[in-house]
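Limitations

Structures in this collection are predictions, not experimental determinations, and the ligand pose is part of the prediction. Treat each record accordingly. The example that follows, with magnesium ion as the small molecule, is included so readers can see exactly what is and is not provided: the inputs are given verbatim, and the output is the predicted complex.
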Amino acid sequence: MADPAGTASPRAPATPWRGRLATLAWYTLVLLGCAAWVHGTLVSLRLPLAGALQVLAGTALALAASRFPIRLSRTDQSFSAASIFTVLLLLLHGPAAAGLAAAAEVLGTRWRGKQHWTAPVLEATGAALAMLLCGSLLQWLLPQPTGHTAAVLMAAMIFGGLHHAARSALALTLQGLRRARAPALDELVGGFGWAGIAHAATAATAALLFIERQHSGGVVMLAMVAIVALLFTTLHFFTLQQQADDAVRQAAADAIEREAELAASIARERAAALKAHHLRELEQSERRFHNAFTHASIGMALLHFDGRIRQANPALHALLGREAVALESQLFGDLLSPADAALLRQEMARVAARETESLSLELCCRHRDGSEVWVSANSSLFSEPGANEPCFILQIQDISARRRAEHELRHRAFHDKLTGLPNRERFNEVLCAALAAAQVDPQRRFAVLFLDFDRFKLINDSQGHAAGDEFLVRASGRLHRCLRHRDTLARLGGDEFAILADDLADDADAVVLAERLLECLREPLGLAGLAVTASASIGITFSSMGYRSPEDMLRDADIAMYRAKVDGKARFALFDVRLHTEVSNRLRLEADLRDALAQRQLTVAYQPLFELATGRLQGFEALARWNHPTLGPVSPGTFIPIAEESGLVVQLTDFVLDTACRQLRQWQRANPDFDEISLHVNVAAHDVAGGGLVTRVTEALNRTGLLPRHLTIELTENILMTQLASALGTLRQLRELGVGLAVDDFGTGYSSLSHLSVLPIDSLKIDMSFVRNLRVGSSEAAVIRAIVLLGTSLGKRVIAEGIETRSQQEQLRDLGCELGQGFYLSRPLPPAAVPHLLNAAPTQPVPLDPLHEHAMDRHIH
Ligand code: C2E
Ligand code: MG
Ligand code: MG
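Predicted complex:
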């Protein structure tokens, strides 16, 4: 039969029975069980020997078979072939004998050594008792088991089930007693399960064996018993194998589960550690932020979205000279100028709308003491941990020192150091702004006055630079006092000043202003104990002329000023249409001259120089000629000053130098009479100041092959006087080269005659103004005599220019003047006319035929 004990207590704790009731139940059951066992033994012993042996064999087989239980998969229950022998003994010899087998079966199953002995003893005696009771019930129900087969089978199955149920109930009850808890109903019902069915089946098997024994005898039954035993043994090992497989699978599943749990717990631990780390970092960063905020050397503040100060650090308090309480909850914009506050509000709105990440502004804050504090403000959104909404973090850096320095630098860059007035750059800015405004509003009128002091150079030269400076400071102060507040007075440089008379009702207002300025300058200035009168010349031009650039307007005012100077100084002149035309013509001529030089449209005329005593041709003066394509011949008196002002004169000199040297060399090659003829070439101030004159002359000589002693460079007395120091080196080098040097227009430049002894010049050209008025006994005659005396005593040749009459020529000759040139002797000639001149009067004494020269000159003019 099946093992009912397996259903009840496989997990019973291996402890002795405790508790009074449990102990009482144990003793009671064990005693009753022992009684049933003893009774079974006695009944068996009274059986015939074969019967007693059958009981003994059945009990032994039950004991042996119980060692091979068949466990029901996924339950705690099991059964074994032992039940078959127990039920077979019941059917053969009654419940008392079967009780022995039942006890043996239980002992075989339960005696594992792991449990306390009280449990198997109780279960074995209980099994004997249960068998006795249930078996007795079966006997009562089926007094003769030899009856109908089906009835035997059915009775056996009912017995099997009942016996199992009784044993299970008994086991559960005992367990309940032991644990002091009544077994639940589902435990009682659930305890029946598959084992109950197995027990019923094994009981039926026993019944079948029993019936087979009735029909076929004991041998067949034994064989069947063996087969059944084999079957159960196979099943036992099969289930053992299955259990082993299950155990392996379970172990693997357990291992996976444990690993999963382990991994989950590691992940949980890591997550917890990470969270803790983050928390720590957050706390640290918060602490760091607060430290940085509090101890920052620059001002910092947290602002609400509406611009109120939430918190400000000590540096900001110090920067603005305000207490913490005074700042908190105050609108930051209230500390700024209204314009800056509006700008800040606007930028903050952009940051709040996420249009930009941050703002960066330079603002002017008000210190508590009323002073201005320039700051650089940078701000962005900031979320404080734990705060509901973000706020602005504002960093404020004091840049007042930088702003002051910038202001100072700007002031320096745009103001004159001496007078503190705006300088040329600043004046240009103001003028630009005025021109732009006039373009927008054509009704707006303004004027520019260009003012130049008339005698500043004299003051500077006679009183020294310090006095000159003082003069400029005081005179400009006086000018400034005459102006209206909207006018701008600027020093352009030297003694040149400009005034922008803005917002005029009428152009005549500028004239009134100019008169006022001239008037206030008429009052003498006390300068180092001297009463100095500071007259000035003023040029005026008006915005109504339609200017577009400040340079043009200033230039025209300058031109007008120049006109005032020409007209006699200490006055004003207006830039008008006539002047405008003059300037335009001049500008056009300048452009044309540039083209003419580039295209070599200029020519050279040669005016002969004669020895006045003999009439011998001594040389030529090379004179530039320009035949304008549309205007015709342009006088050197017109184009030479333009060339000088525009710097084109350097090109012009090179052209004349090169052309004339080449020409003379050509004549020398063609006719030996030219061998000792010399060439005079004029140079300008630019040529001398440029520093490259020696090289240029050398190159021209080298290029053309003319000997240096055949070339004389003419410089006006003015050039010599203004650039004496710088020109000296150049002149010496030219002399060393062998080139002659002549002072042109001598007598007009007020040069000190004492200079003549140190200058490396070898001839003086007496200006034609002396010659023109030369009469016997005139002052000009006295001057010429003095010059001739001085020149000859210093070993210099004296040349007279502008000889227009025979009388002039004779007087000059008589005064001892060595050489002469003039229309009377010969006009400047085109190169083609020169050989003819030589053929006609190579070394003839004067007079030459003036008509002839005039006829030739017509080729030129
Ligand atoms: P300058 O060097 O004193 O030249 C003499 C000027 O006097 C020439 O005028 C000449 O034509 C003029 N002249 C000669 N004899 C008489 C006379 O009897 N009566 C009158 N009224 N004038 C006479 P031009 O050619 O018109 O030149 C004027 C000035 O232009 C020159 O004066 C010179 O300073 C300058 N110039 C001419 N050509 C050149 C040149 O190639 N280079 C430079 N740097 N200046 C030149
Ligand atoms: Mg000359
Ligand atoms: Mg001259």
